[in-house]
Design a protein that fits this description.
Keywords: Membrane, Transmembrane, Transmembrane helix. This protein has 21 helices and no strands. Helix content is about 65%, strand content about 0%. The radius of gyration is 21 Å and the shape is globular.
Length: about 375
């Protein structure tokens, strides 16, 4: 792997594309029925591979991963002093008990994936599509960094899957809301930012149409290339007392750093807005049937208005999985043509875009995951 530092990522990308492609096969004859019957086995093998890579990687894979490895030799009291949440204190206690740091990334990835898997079942998305877009969207690569927040994201989407299930406490909606808030509290034990997810159920009220997407895209572009959000953030720090204390005040770079704002960074965002516009305009039935995940994806794109501001990206991370669910459901279900393009050709364009975007981010070593080394 030393001679080909990105080889393992290209390998899982190819598998991810194959998984997405295989989801288009319909069980119409004996050969496809036989093929369908072995899919759970291949899904399991691919998942094991992803878990293995996340668990047995070197401490150099991931910008923050070396820091998490260093926490293993610290006491829980020392970790408390640097604002490590109680959930991770428990995970580190388990890791020290078995004397193996790898317990930490193993449990972290299980928390992350279990939540996404549970949500995918709630919206009736196939496992091969989930695994395929998990990789192609770069979300899997992102999960190799910032593992505390990724664990919290998994718990949050587990909570959302229960909240959206109308059969759970259907006659007592307020109990369902209380259950959701309680599970968000559990998520906050892995990363304090999870409290932002309290507002996620309100996404269903976000208006979605081609006109709103155009308006949202224009506002996002303006915000992306200006300092508006970074200038506003110090005035809103009272909403983030945990981070104010942790980052030594409202003028910390965490609140005011605008992040990257170049044309190169904005172009993939613009392309995604165009995709969303076309789907909203030509495939409105799909949007109507999948309003919640469409609105979640729209909200994710709109938060690029922060132009990479660190505080905004913390919130935006809880919306990132909607990208996987939106395009996963679209590729799996939509049959409506887009302009003069047949539905399947438009799906090919989407998958190719995310594949090229994956390689682009890999080349820029987003999340510090290159080179991949086992250790």
């Amino acid at each position: 792997m030393g001679d080909n530092p990105t080889g393992v990522y290209i390998f899982i990308l190819i598998i991810g594309i194959l998984f997405i492609t295989s989801s288009q096969v319909r069980a119409t004859d004996k050969s496809t029925v036989s093929s369908t019957s072995v899919r759970p086995f291949f899904n399991f093998l691919f998942l094991v591979l992803l878990i293995y890579l996340a668990t047995f990687r070197s401490r150099s894979v991931g910008t923050d991963y070396s820091m998490y490895n260093g926490f293993f030799s610290m006491t829980n009291q020392q970790l408390k002093a640097i604002y490590i949440e109680k959930g991770y204190l428990l995970i580190y206690s388990i890791a020290r008990w078995v004397n193996d740091f790898r317990v930490v990334p193993f449990i972290s990835f299980l928390l992350f994936f279990t939540g996404l898997y549970k949500f995918s079942k709630e919206i009736k998305m196939s496992t091969e599509v989930l695994l395929g877009f998990l990789v192609c969207s770069y979300l899997y690569c992102n999960s190799l960094n910032g593992i505390r927040q990724m664990s919290a994201i998994g718990v949050v989407f587990f909570a959302l899957s229960l909240y959206l299930n109308v059969d759970i406490l259907a006659q007592h909606r307020w109990l369902n809301i209380a259950l959701y808030i309680f599970i968000i509290y559990i998520a906050s034990l892995f990363h304090a930012s999870a409290w932002f997810a309290i507002a996620l159920p309100l996404i269903k009220y976000v208006p979605i149409s081609s006109i709103w997407v155009v308006l949202g895209g224009l506002l996002t572009g303006i915000g992306f290339f200006t300092k508006f959000i970074s200038g506003l953030m110090p005035k809103l720090v009272f909403l983030f007392p945990h981070y104010v204390e942790k980052h030594d005040g409202a003028n910390s770079a965490f609140f005011v750093d605008p992040g990257s704002k170049g044309i190169i960074e904005f172009l993939p965002i613009l392309i995604q807005f165009i995709f969303l516009f076309l789907i909203c305009y030509y495939s409105w039935k799909f949007v109507k049937l999948n309003k919640f995940i469409t609105a979640g994806y729209f909200a994710y794109l709109f938060l690029f208005i922060g132009g990479g501001n660190f505080t905004v990206t913390r919130v935006q991370a809880y919306l990132l999985p909607f990208l996987v669910f939106f395009y996963g459901k679209y590729v799996q279900e939509s049959t409506e043509n887009i302009a003069r393009l047949r539905s399947n050709w438009f799906k090919v364009i989407i998958v190719l875009f995310f594949s090229f975007y994956f390689v682009f981010r890999l080349s820029r070593n987003i999340s510090g995951i290159v080179p991949f080394v086992l250790g």
